[in-house]
Amino acid sequence: MVDWHDDQAAGLRRLVKLQERRVIAVTSASPADSAAVVAAAALELTARGARVLVIDEHEGAQSIAAPLQCATRYDLLQAARRDVSISRAVVRVSNLLSLLPAARAASSLREADAGERAAVARCVEMAEQGAEFVLIRAAVDADGPSLLARAANRIVLAVQGHAAGLTDGYLLLKQVHAVIGHASYGVVLTRLRDGAARPALIANLQRVSGDRLDAMLADFGSLPVPRDGQPFAFTEAVAHGAAALADQLERVEASTPQRPPGGMRRLLARAGICGLMNSRSPLHGVAG
Question: By CB atoms within 10 Å of each CB, which of 61, 80, 185, 250 scores lowest?
């Protein structure tokens, strides 16, 4: 006999899950490291049954297309300008994983007028429908993170696990924090030369970030990254690191229709075009 109460409860849980969306921006001083971290996280999350959209702000040789074993043709900016449909810009990597190239859009947004920003936001909104995770592989330039990355629920830094890497990671955090000013960030250590040194490296980075920037760094694990020029492979070691990383990403507070607007929507409001995005956008519900 069917228990309709149980069936309705299960349906409600599925509906709530679909309404939740975790938007995480990942950045690094090394594009190869951010590519490996995002690819590993996306593959692990989809293996767990989650629907994932990757928004890639890098292009050419630095694109994440090769690690995800796919090819790209169009950019989010072309969809925003209606040169192509958003469905043609989005690459379907697998049943649960999609990729939206956005390097040109991320660059253009800095100088875009209110109308073009709204068009980009609407395209992102369409692309991420049904996604439980939106992973933004963020590019950071002299002006800091892109407007898309600033709308994330959490920003995660991929930092190489050696002295020079920690210095680069701290400088990147300082640059990001100066623009965004979040109270907390995530950090993934990559290219560890000595696993035993990992706790001390994390503690050192956390201490310096707290003392100098008043910013907390949450430990999101570690991940091996291919040597420069070597292709990404989802090896057993990568899978182990990806599992720990995915555990942390699942704990990131999600955007839901009930949470107040923020992030990109707040930026759009300043431009006088609020109300153009609904509450399920990944650019909603986050502190700007």
Answer: 61
User: Which residues span the domain enclosing 90?
Assistant: 21-154+232-270
Number of domains in the chain: 1
Residue 255's pLDDT band (cuts 50, 70, 90): low
Residue 257 lies in a domain: yes
Terminal CA-to-CA distance of the chain, rounded, Å?
A: 50
pTM: 0.84
How high is the pLDDT of residue 6? 47
Give pairs for 81-88: CB < 8 Å, separation 24+: 81/116, 81/119, 82/119, 86/123, 86/126, 86/127
Report the C-alpha dihedral over residues 150, 36, 229, 165, rounded to 10 degrees.
70
User: Can you tell me the mean pLDDT for 226-238?
Assistant: 86
Residue 21 in tokens: 């969306």
Residue 253 lies inside a defined structural domain of this protein: yes
Quick check: is 6 in a domain? no
CATH number at residue 48: 3.40.50.300
Token digits for 111? 């100088």
- Which residues are CB-neighbours of 288 under 8 A, at least 6 positions away? 150, 151, 262, 263, 264, 266, 267
Query: What gap in Å lies between CA 187 and CA 155, rounded to an integer?
Result: 9
